[in-house]
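Morning!

This is the sequence you dropped in the shared folder:
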Amino acid sequence: MLLKTKPADVFVDRHNGPDSGAVAEMLRVIGVESIDQLIDETVPAAIRLKKPLNLPAALTERAFLAKFKQIAGQNRLFKNYIGLGYHDTQMPAVIQRNILENPGWYTAYTPYQAEIAQGRLEALINYQTMVIDLTGLEIANASLLDEGTAAAETLHMFHSLSKKKNATRYFVSELVLPQTVDVLRTRATPLGIELVVGDHRTADLTDEALFGAILQYPAADGQVFDYTDFIRQAHDNGQFVTVATDLLALTLLTPPGEMGADACVGNSQRFGVPMGYGGPHAGFLATKDAFKRVIPGRIIGQSIDAAGNKAYRMALQTREQHIRREKATSNICTAQVLLSVLAGMYAVYHGPQRIRQFAANIHALTRTLDKALHGLGVEQTNAFYFDTLNLRLESTDLQQAVKREAEAAGLNFRYFDAVRVGISLHQNTEISDVAGIVDVFAKVLGKEVQGLVELPTEVEVTWPENFVRQSDYLTHPIFNTHHSEHEMLRYMKQLENKDLSLVHSMIALGSCTMKLNATAEMIPVTWPEIGGLHPFAPREQAQGYTEIFHDLEKWLCEVTGFDAVSLQPNSGAQGEYAGLLAIKGYHDARGDQHRNVALIPASAHGTNPASAVMAGMTVVVVKSTEDGNIDVADLKAKAGQYADKLSCLMVTYPSTHGVYEETIIDICATIHQHGGRVYMDGANMNAQVGLTSPAAIGADVCHLNLHKTFCIPHGGGGPGVGPIGVVADLAPYLSGHVLIDADGRTAGAVTSAPWGSASILPISYAYINMMGGEGLQNATKIAILNANYIKARLEEHFPVLYTGSNGRCAHEMILDCRQFKKSGIEVEDIAKRLMDYGFHAPTVSFPVAGTLMVEPTESESKEELDRFIEAMISIRQEIAEVEAGRADAKDNLLKHAPHTAAAVLVHEWTRPYTREQAVYPTEYARTFKFWPTVARIDSAYGDRNLICSCTPIEQYVDAEEQLVSTDKGPSY
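The structure's back. C-alpha cells below.
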C-alpha cells in the first residue's frame, strides 16, 4: 500500500462552505460544466486579471499563529502614562471571554431586524444610559467611531443648526486633544469652515462669524476648568458649545451638561477596552433633547411590540443618509457596537460605586505622585487636575534626559513644548508604579527620594466646590444588580440568547458580506502584544505593528492593483471620505480647486452622496437604465456638461444591483477624458478579489470594507475598517497624522489614531496569510457559485430583478417582492416571517424598494443554502395562500410574524392557522428552534414616544413581576 502525502489541514477548505461533491451538484443545477465556465459567463473578459495574485503561500492555522506570535513579539510593552485620551485599563475576564471572544456577540449583524436583536439593543440602551448619566445631558447615541470624529460630527451638526447667516468660524480651545483638532481641521476645510484655535480664557465670543466652540474637560494637559461662564457667554452670542470629556473623570467632576454644554463627546475606551494601538474604541456623543432629530449616528429607542410588551429598536434618523442622500447631515452608517457593548457592560458589572472608586484611586495616586515630585523640586503647573500632571522642567536637555531614563525603565510619558512632561495615571497604576516614576526623576536630577512613596488611606480633594460632582449617576437597577461574576455571566448569556447571529444560521445580507470570521483569525486580537500599545508610543516600540501594516498594505495593493494604501479610516464611510479627500487634494494641488462636481449613479449606496457633500463637492445624479445599469449615454452627457468642474465619479462594482456592468471600462475612460477621477466603492470587493480589480476596471481610488471581504466581524454593527487604495499620483494626498509620522504623509487625519482600528487589522492579516492568492481567488469563485445556485433555485418563485448579459448574477442578487403588494403582503412581512424559520432577512428595500437583496458568501455550505432556499419557497407558498384567498389578507402567518413563545402558549388559540405552522414551519425549525423574544415592533409608536435610556426607575418592574400581554392580533 502506498501512502501519498499532501497537506491535510488546508485553511481554504475550512473557509469555503461547499465541498467538491456539493460544488458538482450546484453546477448541475445552474447548468454549467465547471466553475470556470460560470465565471467566464459572469465576469466580463475585458476586466479579468491576466495573472494570479502575487501573495505569500497559504499557511495552516497552526503555522500562521506561530508566525504571528513572532511578529507580535516585536512590539514592546512599556507602561504607558501618555494620556491624550488613551489609557491602560482592565477588561473584566468575564466580559472578555463571554462577549469579546464570543461569536454569539461578534458575528451578529446591525440590528435592523430588531425582533431578533433584543439582547444587543438592551446592551446599547445600557451604554446610552451610562453616557447620559455621566455627561449630564438628555440623549446620547449608541456610539460613534472615536473621539475626534465625534467632535467633527458636532461641528457639522451645529453648523447646520446655526441661525447666524454666514457664520463660518468655529472656536477650538488650544487645550483640545491635538488629534481631535487634526480631525476637526480635516473635516472643516472642505466646507469652508475656519477653525479659530486659541485660549478659551481670552476668546472673543462676540465675533459674529462664530457659530460654535469646542472645549476639553479635563484639558489635554490635564487642567480642570469651570466652563460655565464661557458656555453662558457663547449662548448669549448665539453659539453652540461642545465639551470633549473623559467619562471616568465625570464620576468625580461636575458634568458638562450641568455647565450648560449643548453636546458632549469623548471616547469610552478606558471603560475596559484595550488601547490596541488606537482602536477600535467607542466614541460617544450626548446632547440636549432639542437636538434629537439631528444627532448623527444610531440611537436605540424603546417601543412596544404587537402584544404591547416593551421592545427596543433603532430610532429616528437611523440610516437617514439612505433616504436624504446628499442632504444628510452625516455619512455615518455604522457605529462601534461591540466596543460600546463592552464599555456598557463594564459599567453594569462594576456599578457606580466601584467605578467611582477607580477614579478616586487614580486621583489619589496622582496626588501622591505630585507630592513626591514636588519634594524633588519638580514644578507641576496644573492648579486642578484629575489624573494628569503637567511638569515643567528647566531645559530641553533635562526633558530628553527624563525621556531616556524613563524609556530605559520601560515607561512612556508625554513630551511637549520643549520642556514639558505630561504624566497620566490610569486604572492599572499601582503605588509601586508611582514609586518607579519618582525614581526616574530622582536619577535624572541626582537627588534622593525622601522616605518611601506610599499611598495614604485618605486623600482630601482640594478642588473648588463647583468642580465636585454632586449629582447621582448610574442609579438604574441594571447598574446596581450584576456585581457578582455569576450574576453577570447569566445576564450576558440572557442577552446573547435573544440575538440571532452567524452561530445560528446564514445571514444572507446583500452588500454586507456576512462571511466566516474564523477563530484562528480572531485569537491574536486579545493578545497583550496587540492590545497593550498606546497609539502615540514611539514607533520603535511597535515594530510588530509596523510589519503588519507594511505587509497588509502591500497585499491590499496587490489585490486592488493600486500603488498605495492608507489603513487609517476606521469605517467604510470614513474610507469613502478619505478617498474623496485624496481626489480633492490632487485637484487642488494642480490649481483645479473649481473641480467640485461628483457624478453619482442613482443606484449608489446612500453614503456616497453624503460623503461627497462632506468633502465639499456638488452631487450630480446619473440615471440608471431599465435593466439596472448605469445609463452610459446620460453619464457621457453629464461628464461633458460638467467637464470643466468634474471632480470624480463614484461607482460601486459590481453594481449595487449585483451585476458586472460590461461598460465599466468605457465609463471610467469617459471620466478620465474630462479630467475627473474614478472612486470605486469597495462594498462588493468579495466579487472581485483574484478575478478582477479596481485598477483593472479603470478606477483611481477605492475603499475596502475589511469587515466584509476581509473577515473582520461585523460585531453587531461595528467595528468596521475602511482603508483606501489609490494610484500613484493620488498617494501624496492620503491621510496623515499630527502626532505620528505616518510614512511621510502630510494630509490631515480622518480619524483619531494614525492607523485607525489597528488592533483588529490582524484579523484580515490572518485571512490573507491563511488563504494565499489562489485561496482568495477560489473564495470569490465560490461566492459567485453560491449566489447563482440560489438564483437558479429561487427565480421561478421570486423574479430576480437584474442579471448580466448571460443571465448570471455576481455574488448577490435582488429578489423582486413588489408583485405581492397587490395581495397585501409587504417585503417586511417576508423579512419577519423568515425569523420563524430561524433566519435573518436579506437586505430589505435596498437598493430597490420592495425587494430583498441576497448575498450568501462563500462560507455557507450547500446544506445551509438549501435550508434558506426551502424557507423562501415555503414562504412563497404561504403568500400564494393569501393570493388565492385561502388565507385572510390581514390575519395570516406573514402578518403576525414573528411568532413568540408567549404568542403560541396562550390558552385559547384563535388564529386561522395552527400553532405548529406558526413556529415549526420546517423540521429543522422544530429541532433547532430560534425563538424571537418579542413580536413585531411598532417603530412609529417608539418615535412618537421616544425613550432612549433605561426605563425610568419609577416605571421599573422586577422581571418576576412582569406579565406577558395576551395576543392583540396582527400588527398592521
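Headline: The radius of gyration is 28 Å.

More detail when I'm at my desk.
O.
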